[in-house]
Amino acid sequence: MDPPFNEIYKTLLYKQITNTENNVPEIPFSFSVTAIVEEVELPVIDVSRLIDGAEKEREKCKEEIVRASKEWGFFQVVNHGISMDVLEKMRQEQIRVFRESFDNKSKSEKFSAGSYRWGSPSATCLRQLSWSEAFHVPMTDICDNKDFTTLSSTMEKFASESEELAYMLAEVLAEKSGRKTNFFRENCVRNTCYLRMNRYPPCPKPSEVYGLMPHTDSDFLTILYQDQVGGLQLIKDNKWIAVKPNPRALIINIGDLFQAWSNDMYKSVEHRVMTNPTVERFSTAYFLCPSYDAVIECSSDYPAYRNFSFREFRQQVQEDVKKLGFKVGLPRFLNHVY
């Protein structure tokens, strides 16, 4: 069932690291493991007020969303419109598909080629490893799937409800940053967004290997449904903090595109997933992405970033990961004119 982590990573995990590691380029601050200050609960926002609340309550809710997006880059939402029944079915179907043999998963015809991913086979040092597997599924794979299995129907339900939640939150953030609220429904449509199912198997070297490397998300918004195992950490005030799981909530985080589009008003915060020696962890994420041709323009007379297309951004990320072993992201697109 498990990917061949031990086989592929044997040299890095169980033998002395050679001097080749010294040839790896300078790495970001966040890759230097620092002590966890504490386990915290992210800001919790009841978003039912956006629909059912009086005007005063709606405005208060919007202010809470904006404040969390500025100060944390992450927050949690409750009464979000996605039923616990749908979430639990999503979790059970996810567990079932990951229980298939590695050979079946790697050759799966459930989704388009390349959807199944695992680890970091090209890693050259321990800090580049990701001890996890995932199905990274284009929304078109879900919508166009004529094989009406429990998995496909559950994914469709989860994705469609996540989509509406993402639109609602993105429109609040657009409104409060002075941008057009219709941008997302016009540019982030079904055939440009993704659903990702993650599994983090138990790891024999949890202190040395990440479940998911430190990174920021290359989208506008991410909606995450996670189990109660824990392991998600993010940077706050230049320190790594552990996120306390909340069984009632979905986690929302700002992506790189929203940070650029809002001219740094909202923050795309670096985060990672730690491994566990005995317990596996599952999560499902929905990514609100535009078309590759969509142009990201700063909302300012003095833009921090130059205009760039999503295609250009993705290509740069892929080049950096291939060359450096990690993503550089928005610093590549800083506007040096101002």
From TrEMBL:
PROSITE patterns registered for this protein in UniProt = FE2OG_OXY
Q: Which InterPro entries match?
A: DIOX_N, IPNS-like_FE2OG_OXY, IPNS-like_sf, Iron_ascorbate_oxido_reductase, Oxoglu/Fe-dep_dioxygenase_dom
**Coiled-coil region(s) at which residues?**
44-71
Q: Which GO terms describe its biological process?
A: gibberellin metabolic process
Q: Which domain of life is it from?
A: Eukaryota
Q: Which residues form the Fe2OG dioxygenase domain?
A: 191-290
Molecular function (GO) terms listed?
gibberellin 2-beta-dioxygenase activity; metal ion binding
Q: Kindly state which reaction or reactions the protein catalyses.
A: gibberellin A1 + 2-oxoglutarate + O2 = gibberellin A8 + succinate + CO2
Arranged from A to Z, the UniProt key words for this protein are:
Coiled coil, Dioxygenase, Iron, Metal-binding, Oxidoreductase
Output the Gene3D superfamilies linked to this UniProt entry.
B-lactam Antibiotic, Isopenicillin N Synthase, Chain
> Per the UniProt record, which EC number(s) apply here?
1.14.11.13
- Is Oxidoreductase one of the keywords? yes
Which Pfam families does this entry report, sorted A to Z? 2OG-FeII_Oxy (PF03171), DIOX_N (PF14226)
Family membership noted in the UniProt record: Belongs to the iron/ascorbate-dependent oxidoreductase family. GA2OX subfamily.
Spell out the protein name for this chain. Answer: gibberellin 2beta-dioxygenase
Q: Which organism is it from?
A: Thlaspi arvense (Field penny-cress)
Please spell out the taxonomic lineage of the organism that makes this protein: Eukaryota, Viridiplantae, Streptophyta, Embryophyta, Tracheophyta
